[in-house]
Amino acid sequence: MQFNIAMLGPPGAGKGTQASQLAGPRNVPKISTGDILREAARLETEFGREVQAIMDSGGLVSDEVMIGIVRERLMREDAREGFVLDGFPRTVAQAEALDAILVDRAPLMVLDIAVPSDELVRRLASRRVCGQCGEIFGDGSGSECVKCGGALQQRNDDRESIVRERLKVYARNSEPLTSYYRGRLTFAEIDGSRTPDVVERLVNETIDRFQGSVELGRSRPM
Ligand code: AMP
Fold this sequence. Notes:
The protein is α/β, with parallel strands linked by helices. The chain has 8 helices and 8 strands; from the N terminus they run βαβαααβαβαβββαβα. The strands form 2 sheets. A 5-stranded parallel beta sheet has the order 2-3-1-4-8, sandwiched between helices. Strands 6-5-7 form a 3-stranded antiparallel beta sheet, with no helix packed on it. α1 packs across α8 and α2 (33-42) packs across α3. The longest helix has 23 residues, at 160-182. Adenosine monophosphate binds at residues 11, 33-34, 37, 54-55, 59-61, 66, 87-88, 90, 94, 157, 166.
């Protein structure tokens, strides 16, 4: 059966880390819309510059653009057996479009990773990302990636003033988004305030439960 997952949760909840651990062993792509947009911004086209300005403000790229990017990405061959979406959907309009895109596929499993906002601000302030391989480090120490030796960097939008705006934007959209999914059998909220190992265990247990559910085919509310 296809392995179709969307990870929801505020910036800093650990979605990216958990998405990687889910996707890697199952040989399905982790599709991070933030990574796709950062890559576009690096190209410094007009579109890239617009995207960079939006990310630097802590706001969201338009639903229309995001839906187009994800629709195209999910049509690629490597996503045929499934995918782990990280950072999409972020709005109800994106969630509705995703349902339409997935209409002929196995039910979407949705995990919402919840973490209190004080803890998120603390985590994001110390988060570093490898400029070369993209590995994420939570502890803010060291300047070199232990995986590939690349230089560790702070994301521009992880600075505190932008983080607060990103959290506000998230809070505005998150309740309608979780309400959109809450009635489904393949939706679960996960306590993301625990250590990454514990969260990983909770995530894997939840997915096993979803997959074992004989009701999987009836995941949408009647
Ligand atoms: P992330 O790496 O997921 O925190 O995303 C970084 C930034 O990219 C966000 O603050 C948004 O500006 C933008 N972005 C990523 N995913 C989306 C999305 N699904 N919808 C709109 N904007 C997005």
